[in-house]
Amino acid sequence: MSIDFLALANAGVDKLHPYQPGKPVAELERELGISNSVKLASNENPLGLGAKAKAAIERALPELARYPDANGFALKAALANKLAVSSEQLILGNGSNELIDLVYHTFVSAGEEIVYSQYTFIVYALATQSHGATAIEVPAKDFGHDLDAMAAAITERTKLVCITNPNNPTGTFISKANLQAFLAKVPKQVLVILDEAYTEYVLPEERHPSIDWLSDYPNVIVSRTFSKAYGLAGLRVGYMVAHPELIGVLNRVREPFNCNSLALVAAEAALSDEAYLEEAVSLNRREMQRYQAFFEEQGLRYVPSQANFITLALERDAAPVYDALLREGVIVRPLAGYGLPTCLRISIGLEHENQRCMAALAKVLA
Ligand SMILES: *Cc1c(COP(=O)(O)O)cnc(C)c1O
User: Fold this and answer.
1) Do 220 and 298 belong to one domain?
2) What is the residue with the minimal CA distance to atom 1 of ligand 1?
């Protein structure tokens, strides 16, 4: 006798589909009969693990039979010091993705409305669906957030607004003044996640003092990660900064040991490795300019990006271009799943990887 497990699942689960990750590189290479492909698909740091983080991981190995520090005391102290906040304003997660889910789990009930932009991080749509909430997806403007329309979309049923800045997958950026004006319009009982996964790549003079804003806007939650500029995507560690009472509520629901020991020590070490961060950001800036110059020279349209990736907007279906690039050993991200079937997102790699990508693009598009 067969059991209909979907019928047993919570409302909304039947409409979800498992996240479609890219194939593992080794598997893809075997299928295509190629080797030394370049993976520019997941916005990871192309420099690899930093030396300080690596040393911290090695030092922590003998302690792995022990549970991690459930409060992440040392990492929170280091973050508090760096961000000039108190440890009570911080929560650590198994990637910021886990923390986004935790916000939903803690605050969002079935039927409540969640406002987010078209063409944004897929996790917001997934979490909205899996909590039985109602998605209010606001049409994008120039591939980015239309904040006026988002403000107008807030009703008395809205529980949460999600803003991704810089945005993934398009790289668009909301200016300081526009974002602050938006926050001032959001009613205080509506929570706002400001997802700043790529904030380290933004030019310092354009970066938002979003953490300073928390005292004026206690309904705002700033979300950041060690997965991108800090080079720790595989370890899964992210954090949120918010009002201490809001963090206290999240801590009631958080799993005690949600951050593993290696993630905790590696993130603390990565935070102190300013040379690594500087190299990552300057490499990104330099190589971003190389892509822009190449696209302009080729007459290709792209979305200007403040992140560590750039989105190419072709005049045609991008799927065959994606496939042809794969056969050249270049793995990028197709965006049909985001509703952008003519776009490809390219993560900025090392110089030689980007050169490979550009040569393959020129060949494939010729
Ligand atoms: C990559 C990314 C994250 C980070 O996710 P982690 O779970 O911390 O690895 C969060 N938000 C956006 C928009 C991202 O692109």
Assistant:
1) no
2) 197
